[in-house]
Specification:
Blueprint lengths: L1 E6 L2 H10 L7 E6 L9 E2 L7 H10 L4 E4 L2 H6 L1 H7 L4 E2 L3 H8 L1 H10 L7 E4 L2 H8 L6 E5 L8 E4 L2 H13 L10 E5 L4 E10 L3 E9 L2 E3 L3 E4 L4 E4 L6 H21 L5 E11 L2 E8 L7 H4 L7 H10 L13 E9 L24 E5 L2 E4 L2 E4 L3 E9 L2 H12 L7 E2 L12
Parallel strand pairs: 1-2, 1-4, 2-3, 4-5
Antiparallel strand pairs: 6-9, 7-8, 7-9, 10-11, 10-15, 11-14, 12-13, 14-17, 15-16, 17-21, 17-22, 18-21, 19-20
The chain binds adenosine monophosphate (AMP) and glycine.
Length: 423
């Protein structure tokens, strides 16, 4: 079959690498893709939000299956447009992608269906938000309602900071229209775990767990980023935690969406916090995590295309989802200065090493081909990933592989997976 993947990051590279192993795939395209994805798919220069062009392309090439990797086009309704044109597409429709697209929606859903999450209030009026904060407990968490590249969350230590935060989100509109509405929620403490799942509208099958590292600097310091590295599985995601989540969170979310007339098909990403009172939902995403996909998909034994088709067809109950009994670690190589300001266009050396080693992957995030040379083209440049028999071995392997790659202003965290030692 002919497959079109929509997106351009490390996640889409991991999806493409996984899909390429399927005997069902004869030709793959990616829009817009990147220099690494070229290995598996023909990249076409159409942006992920150029719906008309994407649909026209899919029709022209007789695409049999479209996989939407990114949140923006999902929330914007690309799946609906593709389906209207007769293209089978993997991902939630617009009315279900709201699970990620609106934090106010997802908080109200959890409250209505008794899914454990932090206590909260939603606000559309900045004065009402500030009045509420006057009697609130600190620290407290402010969240812009809409999509904000994972950056619309402010943790405020006192009233003054929180008041400033309301201004930033709702009046200065730092995150654009995402700040028209805001969630104010209780601050929780605990370990964070990411659990991705496949959903076919009724059935949910969770994948192996992972943990992200969102802050830019070692020791979880510095600004929030799109993710500086991941490991999988999480040693903190015990059988007990899994059982609790299966009983109170996973199926409950799928059923809640169906009950609301918003049948969810695709990937639900559960951002969980393991609090003293038990696991609670921090956030939902309506897609694979990035860089979670980079450590989860390489460990999946199933044919990705078969699982994706089962989600579309509503036959996921017949799929036996299986993961390798090993571990993987991904270390993001970024451009010095990310996430604030950084230079681009530096040549990248050493990428060929990854073809020589089994169990090692270099997923491209911000790269491009320039005059026959792959150069840096973003803040997060590459996701160097390695498997190992356990987390410690995978981490040692991944860090060894970061040495294979050289480019000017290369920056990485040196403590990805440090939590493994505390498990
Ligand atoms: P989100 O986009 O909602 O996942 O938030 C981004 C990050 O902010 C999370 O990964 C947490 O580290 C942090 N965060 C979000 N909500 C809370 C909360 N209620 N309590 C503590 N930390 C939070
Ligand atoms: N790694 C977090 C995310 O994909 O949103």
């Amino acid at each position: 079959m002919k497959v079109l993947i929509v997106g351009s990051g490390g996640r889409e590279h991991a999806i493409a690498a996984s899909a390429a192993k399927s005997s069902k795939v004869e030709k793959m395209y990616c829009a817009p893709g990147n220099a690494g994805i070229e290995e598996f798919a023909e990249c076409v220069p159409i942006g992920a939000m150029e719906f008309e062009k994407l649909v026209a392309f899919a029709k022209e090439k007789s695409i049999d299956l479209c996989i939407v990797g990114m949140d923006d086009p999902l929330v914007g309704g690309l799946v609906d447009e593709m389906e209207a044109a007769g293209i089978r597409t993997f991902g939630p429709r617009k009315n279900a992608a709201i699970l990620e697209g609106s934090k106010a929606f997802s908080k109200d859903l959890m409250k209505k269906y008794h899914i454990p999450t932090a206590a909260y209030e939603n606000f559309t009026d900045p004065d009402a938000a500030i009045a509420y904060l006057e009697t609130a407990k600190f620290p407290i968490v402010l969240k812009a309602d809409g999509l904000a590249l994972g950056k619309g969350v402010l943790i405020c230590q006192n009233f003054e900071e929180a008041k400033e935060g309301v201004r930033t989100i709702m009046l200065d509109k730092k995150f654009g229209t995402a700040g028209n509405e805001m969630v104010i929620e209780e601050f929780m403490t605990g370990r964070e775990v990411s659990v991705l799942s496949f959903v076919d509208g009724k059935t949910i099958k969770t994948m192996t767990s992972a943990q992200d590292h969102k802050r830019a600097g070692d020791g979880d310091t510095g600004l929030n980023t799109g993710g500086m590295g991941t490991f999988s599985p999480s040693p903190f995601y015990t059988k007990e935690v899994e059982e609790f989540c299966s009983e109170h969170i996973y199926q409950a979310t799928v059923d809640a969406m169906a009950a609301e007339g918003r049948e969810f098909k695709g990937v639900i990403f559960f951002g969980l916090m393991l609090t003293e009172e038990g696991p609670k939902v921090l956030e939902y995403n309506a897609r694979f995590g990035d860089p979670e996909a980079q450590v989860v998909l390489p460990r999946m034994k199933n044919d990705l295309i078969e699982v994706v088709e089962a989600c579309i067809d509503g036959t996921l109950d017949q799929v036996d989802l299986q993961f390798e009994d090993n571990a993987a670690v991904c270390v993001v190589l970024a451009s010095e200065g990310y996430p604030v300001s950084y230079e681009k266009g530096f040549p990248i050396q050493g990428l060929e090493e990854f073809n020589k080693h089994e169990g090692y992957y270099c997923f491209h995030a911000g790269t491009k081909l320039q005059d026959g040379q792959i150069v840096t083209n973003g803040g997060r440049v590459l996701g160097v990933t390695a498997k190992g028999k356990d987390l410690k071995e995978a981490r040692a392997n991944a860090y060894a592989a970061t040495e294979w790659v050289q480019f000017e202003n290369k920056y990485m965290r040196h403590d990805i997976g440090k939590a493994i030692d505390e498990a």
